[in-house]
Amino acid sequence: MRKIAEYTCRYFPKICLVNVLRQWTGIVYETPDNIPIISKSGKYENLWYAAGFGTRGITLSAGAGKALAEMVAYGSTKTIPIEKFSIERFIFE
Ligand SMILES: Cc1cc2nc3c(=O)[nH]c(=O)nc-3n(C[C@H](O)[C@H](O)[C@H](O)COP(=O)(O)OP(=O)(O)OC[C@H]3O[C@@H](n4cnc5c(N)ncnc54)[C@H](O)[C@@H]3O)c2cc1C
Q1: 26 within ligand 1 shell (Cβ under 6 A)
Q2: Among 42, 86, 74, 36, residue whose Cα is nearest residue 57
Q3: How far is the CA of 50 from the centre of ligand 1 (A)?
Q4: Percent of residues in the chain assigned helix, strand, coil, to nearest 5
Q5: Where are the domains of the chain?
């Protein structure tokens, strides 16, 4: 917080007049390659993944939901190529 305040005040001096009342933090989950997993399980029947969105999950939710729905309904995506999001690029499943 101290470091961020220091940088922010340097570039936006007027913001130094603002009092910070509280802050919070949490875990941002990322995959090893920073690319989400939107995929059918390679190992388990009827298991689908949409995870590992890190700090982009809200903005990606519409596309991820559409891709996942298409995969579940049709077995593959009709509109969005998502091979790069496959769980099979990892060995941890
Ligand atoms: C500080 C911060 C800032 C962010 N800022 C942005 C931003 O500006 N723009 C953006 O696009 N994204 C942002 N994100 C990322 C975004 O919030 C997430 O990517 C998104 O919420 C992920 O959605 P999700 O549904 O995949 O997972 P989640 O929202 O994490 O939902 C998972 C749900 O599963 C539940 N759950 C977990 N385990 C179990 C279990 N065993 N049984 C039952 N339920 C379970 C959890 O309680 C939770 O409700 C931010 C994230 C953080 C932490």
Answers
A1: yes
A2: 36
A3: 11
A4: 40, 10, 45
A5: 25-89
Ligand 1 and 27: CB distance under 6 A: no
- What is the share, in percent, of the chain residues with pLDDT greater than 90? 60
- pTM for the model stands at 0.78
Q: Where are the beta strands (DSSP E) in the chain?
A: 37-40, 48-51
Of 27, 53, 59, best ligand 1 pocket probe by most atoms within 8 Å of the beta carbon: 53
Q: Which residues pair with 37 in a beta bridge?
A: 51
CB–CB of 46/93 below 8 Å? no
